[in-house]
Specification:
about 250 residues; mainly beta; eight-stranded antiparallel beta sheet
């Protein structure tokens, strides 16, 4: 038992610590290794070695918004590792993005209730323990191309991009400056530094950075990406761990 300051003790139990087979996205709830599974309602997963080679503990580099989805709303996929200290930089390859219309990129802490309701995305309004950049096509376009009746937006009417999260402050770009819009084919670098309360994204020559609330310094963070339209896909890879040269993130 672990003694608590307020009195009493927290019961401890045995755990099994296992390292994922490789960096990727968390697999579907049942832990199977198939490209399609009835339990994976929001995403399908593919590894670099093929659709069934990711393994039950991770290693799926590509997350695809469920191709059979008929209701278009944000759902979020989370990386299969937690960053507990130092800095780590990931590269995201946006392989498919319907009309380059919607994506959310950011980070979550363990308390985040990911996909607890419709339209869940980091950087959108009211998502506790989640921060990031969220973009979505204008509300005026909803209903076009025959899918609007099956669509729900996550950003306020009139907004096409938002950056933030509970308790976060925007470091770059300055308030009033337009946020970058991610397109199909883009490569996005994401830096997580939980002890420094830092989340940074680089989209081409554009730089986005958030200063996270102080309580984040005592919590791990995981990369999170929200996709909206059926077939949208993003691939993850890690480019550097440990001490990342911050000069490259000074941002233009």
């Amino acid at each position: 038992r672990l003694p608590l300051r307020a009195g009493g003790a927290w019961p401890l139990g045995a755990i099994r610590v296992a390292r994922p087979q490789g960096l990727g996205w968390k697999p579907c709830p049942c832990g199977c290794s198939h490209i399609f599974c009835a339990e994976a309602r929001h995403f399908q997963f593919v590894s670099a070695a093929g659709p069934s080679k990711g393994g039950t503990e991770g290693g799926y580099q590509v997350a695809v918004r469920q191709r059979r989805s008929c209701f278009h709303s944000f759902r979020t996929v989370v990386a299969n590792e937690w960053v507990i200290g130092g800095e780590i930089s990931y590269t995201l390859h946006v392989e498919a993005l319907w009309s380059s219309a919607a994506i959310a990129i950011g980070a979550v802490s363990p308390q985040a209730e990911v996909n607890s309701d419709i339209g869940w995305a980091p950087g959108s309004r009211g998502r506790a323990f989640a921060w990031g950049l969220c973009m979505e096509r204008p509300s005026a376009e909803v209903g076009l191309r025959g899918i609007g009746e099956c669509e729900q937006r996550s950003l306020p009417a009139g907004d096409v991009a938002a950056c933030g999260g509970p308790g976060a402050s925007r470091v770059a770009p300055p308030e009033g400056t337009a946020l970058p819009m991610v397109k199909q084919g883009d490569v996005v670098d994401v830096l997580l530094a939980p002890k420094k309360g830092r989340l940074a994204l680089r989209v081409g020559d554009s730089h986005v950075e958030l200063s996270l609330p102080e309580h984040v310094a005592s919590q791990p963070l995981a990369l999170a990406v929200g996709l909206k339209y059926a077939g949208d896909a993003v691939r993850i890879c890690c480019i550097e761990r440990g001490a990342v040269d911050a000069s490259g993130w000074a941002g233009a």
